[in-house]
Amino acid sequence: MRMEQLLSAQEAAGPRAMGTAQGVPMCNCPTTCCCWRVRSRALIIPGCQVLLDWVCHTLTGCHTKKLNVTKDVEEKLWGFLDSILHSKKLQSLIKEGKSINLRFTIAQVINDFIASCCSQQGPPVGVSTVLNCCQGILSIPALSYVYTAKLEMMVDLLNRLSTLTCHYLDSEEPITPQVFDVLQMSFTQYLQIQRQQVNPNRVFSHVLSHLFLPCLLLRHSLNTRSWSKEDDGRVRYNLSKDIRSKTETVLQMGLFQYELLSSYKEELLPEKDQTEKKKGSLKTLLKPVGCILEKLGDSSSFDSEIYASVVTSSLPLVYKLFLDSYCKDGNQLVCFHMLVRLFDCLQTTVLQKKEDSATLSTWGMALFALEQMLNHVLCHDVYNVAVDRIRHAEIQYHFYRKLSEMLVYNPCTSIPAWFRCLKTLILLNHLIIEPDLDDLLSCAWIDADILDSRVRKAQEILIGNLLQTYAKLRQFSKLFKEILTVVCRPATDELREPVLSPGLTEKLSELLLELPPNQILDIWEMILEKYETVILPDIKGDSDLALKLFSLASVLHCLLFNMKTMDNNTPVPVLVRFQNLMKKMDKVLNPSFKIIKSHCACTEPDVWIQKLCDASLLLFSTWLEVDTATSLNCSKYISQLGSQTISTGCSTEGWDLSLFLEDKDCWKKVVNLSTGPVSKYCLGLLCVQKMKQILMQNKCPSETDLMNLQAAASFILHHEGDDFFLTEYEPWDGSASLVNEKCFPVAHWHLVISNLAIIHLYMSAEDTNRIGKILLETFLSSPVEENQADKDTGITLKLISASLLQSGFFPEMRILQCSFITSIIEKCAMSKYKDLSKTLNLLCARSLSWHEDFFSAYKKGLPFSIANKTNDKSSICLANMENASQHILSISHSHSFVDFSDTDLDHLRSAIECISILSPDSVSPSDQSRCFLLLLRLAIADCSCQTIRLKSTCYKLLTFLISGKHSNAVCRVLYASDILEIALSSLLTSKWEFGDNTDLQKEWPHFIQMVQCFLESFIGMIMERKQSSLLNMEKFVTFVVNSISNPASSVWHFRVGHLLLVALNTVCTIISQCLQEHYSNKQRADSWVTLLNKAVVKMGTIIHQCLKSSDYTQMFPSFFVSCITTLLEAELIQSSLMGISSDKAEFKNIELYGGFCSQILRELYCAEGQVEFLKVALHYLKICVGVKDIQTSQEGLLIAILSSVKKLLTGKWISVLIVQSIENELTELFIRLTRSCTHDEFHIMMTLVLQCLQVNNLWKQDYKEPFAGVVLLKLLLSCPLNGDNGKLFWFTAPQTITSLVTLCKDSCKDRLLIPTIIVPVLEALALLLRQGETQLTNPHHVTLSFSILLTVPLDHKKPEDYYSVFLGVHEVLFSILQYHSKSMLKAVPSFLSSFYRLVTSVMHEGRQKGEKAGTPESDVVLQCARLVERMFTYIAAKTEEFTVFSAFIVSQYVNELQKVTLQPVVKKHLTEGIFHILDLCIDRDIKFLNASLQMGVREVFKELYKDYNHYHKTKNQGEEKYTA
């Protein structure tokens, strides 16, 4: 008890008591005295060894029960050991090489403690400290020998840690990384020891006895853990994967060593196959496979709940590790026998009785394990069909046959793995499943009832692989013979599923394009034979036969619709057979229609007659489509309808299809019995075919033809009803055979829209209006549509309508487009708002001909009252539009508003947004005016702030309409100034109090932008018309000025000020542009100046008042800067018209301009994320340069602007993309600066640039300074530098080039600097070299560039970075080649080396990697290949300089070409480029290349030279023949 008292006293007294005589006397226990100091990480005596021995001895005594201490004391002892192991003193002693020993017994104590923790419920107490101790020991090589010296000890630790980790993973507590870190470190240590072992049997024994099951259980726990947010992310994403990988490595290196292969062979192979029997080491394991399977078969090793799961997940792993180790050097037979043994284990442990419903989930796991093992067989090429048949008497084949029989005779169609197992067997050898092919087709396809989407996908993959396999073997007809046999069997279920699902239809259509036509014709013939001999004779009253008939019809429909169409290139025997089959199909269909005709109609048709109608109509429409398509594509084909024409006395009912087959009575009976969705859809298809046949006659349509066309169009449109789009529906996959009740609305709408080009010409006005209404309703999102949006597996109503509205064909259907716009107006004319509906009803009267061009008479200047007197409807249209416009004007004057609900606002927004899908140029003048008046009316309807989104949408769409070619049409019914007054008056009288509604506050900037865009577009349109533009502008400015209330009054609101600023800003901008055109009419120019002056005065007043408002900060700053800029520019234009220069003019708002300029200079670098503000601010600074009294001195202003821009470019948030977005504004600013600056100021600029380009900035980790310096240099290069400033710049150019070279070479060490420094340096260097053609006279300064080009990294980069660097290097080379050819002559090898890096890089990146074309990577490589081709062309143009090196260039190219296989598009460009270099080669060069190139490279060169002679040289010689 003495130790317990001492430790307790130490803990209670703390460090202060340790140094005093008070408290517990510690002088008699120096060892305990040191404990506190160790715990506080301040070990002050060199007694680490003593302390370690003491604490290890004490803990061992506690463990062996020789010392009787409490749990608390034991925990403190562990903590003491942890403190020593992690103390800095111990670490320093070890680094000094001091010898520190640890007792071996402490390792056993730790192992036992971890083992005891596994049995506790919840987190074990004290285990964290023990794990820290274990981690400390393993991490110190001088101490880890207690584990590494004894393999058994390390194995035991891994066993205990794995079990403890499983204990943690199986609990619901959050996972922490400690135990995983220790386990990872233990695995690492063990693997090092395992590799050093020389006795494979010993390693096998240890792994199998102690690690095999724990590792499998650990892997299972890691795979099945349901990770939560509380779990440590490093464990979930990193450590767990690493530990899982290490467990597999431990098992593979322990159980499947190469030295044990002979033991596995001895156990697995039969006597006759043991070619290496009695060879190798005498110390072989007797039965390694038996030992492994015995461990797996022992159910007592795991909990019964997880036993099956662990075994099924472990068997594939064991087989994978076995294959990875031994599946080479002809050991495939051993690997197969291993599979047999593992499958036997799977059977005995899991696959016992499938009939028991409780074992269905177990069967699922077992099938998943079997699938994985079969996939391993496939991936490792274990099964070679020829070798198995010749050498091994088909032993593998017979095993896989048994597997196939087991799967087929025990179908598990609810388990995806069952389908995948069969798929893998097919891929191994189709002969495996061929004896059971009919049963497989029945249970896995024809009679399978599958609802789960995952199972459906697995089924489609299986059947798809089956179809693909037989297609490749050219045995498709053989497979379909079995399919047809199964289809014609008695059905196991009355409601048999459709034979072809959407996925299988798509797969079959792909395969049919590759099949020989004779095989398709064989299948066609078989289907017709079954149809004629098996189904049709006994179909009356037999629903089962009718279902089979429809299955055959759907298969034949898919077959004929997706096969290649016959054309003039088709072999004659094939065409003859095709012709005969078309005749036979015609004859086979006749009995079907006769049965239908003879059937007595009843109230509800029987199932068999419905299915007979479905099948007959489906096949007949398919036959008709094929006949028509073949007639058009193949002149040798004789159409079956060739002799039939429509007589003038023919019936004009839409459903009458006697043109094609039978008589009218038969078709009347067919229509009456066709109540199913497939029949109705096929009748629509046949009516479309009827219309096509009439139109394809070689004559002008007669009145009877027109009546037939109109009747057919009406039947197509109406045979489904008018409200089909309101019913609930499902997406449709596009196949006629899969049309059902739920997807029929989609199929019918698709039929109408896809054939609208034919139908719309013969629709009545009512039908046109109906189609327009349905178009709008289906395009707008509905609840039904939203419920189906997540499926995204087929065609929907909205998708069909959107495709029509977005097509280029829709604007050509002017009547339909007009009807669509009328429907939009109708939807907005809500009756509960009388004033609104009164206006809009005038614009959407269905009885009027809105599509007619009733504006044409008014164009000639006729008044409305006498326009179009001959056409009453046109006159009414004009009158309605005039009345509606006057009503809108009166409402804007009376301020009569409505109060929309939130639902109404959403309803209106969704309706008017449909206007944006139209093409503004395609909208007629009348429709454009109607839409304009609609939007104008809605914009002024409600004055509440809740309508801000509706108003934004209205002004956005008004701007959209103004962009059309009939934008001025609305001015024929309403004056332009009145439109502006209407728009602005409603805005100024609206209530803009948002309160605490942050959503509305965020919407305000966007709303202001939309209003500004509208005003700019509309006023711009007024100016373009040049019709009373001055009068309209005077009226509008007068209205705006009169609308400005006293800022001191209570009516004033800062948001009203914003709106007034928008109006005045737009007016000033437009008038300023107008004045810059220099009107010859002096009086007119004076009028514009007067108008501008009035706007400037009021605008300055409003800006002052808005800035005083406390809420002005809610507005985005770019708006105010833009207004100030416009105001300053307007005053400058006034001064220039008066002949006063900017540096002498007096400005009305000079204090305002100076204040804004100073504020911008101070805060420019703080504008993070405000690109628009940066643009307008830089533009404002450009205007300020040269303006008098902006600052105390212009010299100070220029330096201040330069400093502010430099500070902006060095900001942490600035990026390359931001600089690119403001590059134009920066360039314009610097052009103005360089023109206005003095020589001294330009000297300051150059000094600042050179300071930024110094390489010591990189050494200080300051990457923004060099970036800013390069950008400033590029800006200076964009300016026209003349006189002394130009001389100064080019005088410092050598120093600049040296700085760029040094900067770039240092930056190449860090790939993160590629976009920020390396690429800009290359761009700046290229610009410098181009502009310095006459200035850079020293060749050394030019050739310095090559040191950059030879060091810039060209590999392992993102596509965008790769292209930027590639383009930069190319541009520098081009600048040297084009502008410094004399300097290049002294450094041709460096030039070619730099260019060769580009060629090598693009060939490496452009090699074939299995990637699809069109990816970002392939597009980038293609662009780079074009650059290389261009450079080859430039080099070839420099004949004198490069003739000597042409053979060298070709040699380098073919040497690299021999190493890679290029993508065709890349190779095309590179080959075209090298052909130009071959033009420089003379015969001596070609002989030299043939003699000097190596064998493989020489063959590549010969092929290249052959192509050169064939394609390029002959072409050039042909061109030279006609050259003077």
Secondary structure layout:
Layout: H1 2-18, H2 30-39, H3 48-63, H4 71-85, H5 88-95, H6 105-117, H7 127-139, H8 145-148, H9 151-170, H10 178-196, H11 200-224, H12 233-255, H13 261-268, H14 288-297, H15 304-326, H16 332-349, H17 360-379, H18 385-391, H19 395-409, H20 416-428, H21 437-446, H22 453-472, H23 476-487, H24 502-512, H25 517-535, H26 543-562, H27 572-598, H28 607-633, H29 664-673, H30 677-695, H31 703-718, H32 744-754, H33 756-759, H34 765-779, H35 783-788, H36 797-805, H37 814-828, H38 834-843, H39 856-859, H40 872-894, H41 902-912, H42 925-939, H43 948-962, H44 976-989, H45 998-1025, H46 1029-1043, H47 1054-1075, H48 1082-1108, H49 1117-1137, H50 1150-1163, H51 1171-1184, H52 1194-1209, H53 1216-1221, H54 1223-1236, H55 1239-1252, H56 1256-1259, H57 1264-1277, H58 1283-1291, H59 1293-1307, H60 1314-1331, H61 1339-1343, H62 1345-1349, H63 1359-1379, H64 1381-1385, H65 1388-1405, H66 1416-1437, H67 1439-1442, H68 1446-1457, H69 1464-1478, H70 1483-1492, H71 1495-1521
Helix pairs in contact: 1-2, 3-4, 4-7, 6-7, 6-9, 7-10, 9-10, 9-11, 10-12, 11-12, 14-16, 15-16, 15-17, 16-17, 17-20, 20-22, 21-23, 22-24, 23-25, 24-26, 25-26, 25-27, 26-28, 27-28, 27-29, 28-30, 30-31, 30-32, 32-36, 34-36, 34-37, 37-38, 37-41, 38-40, 38-42, 40-42, 40-44, 41-43, 42-43, 43-45, ...
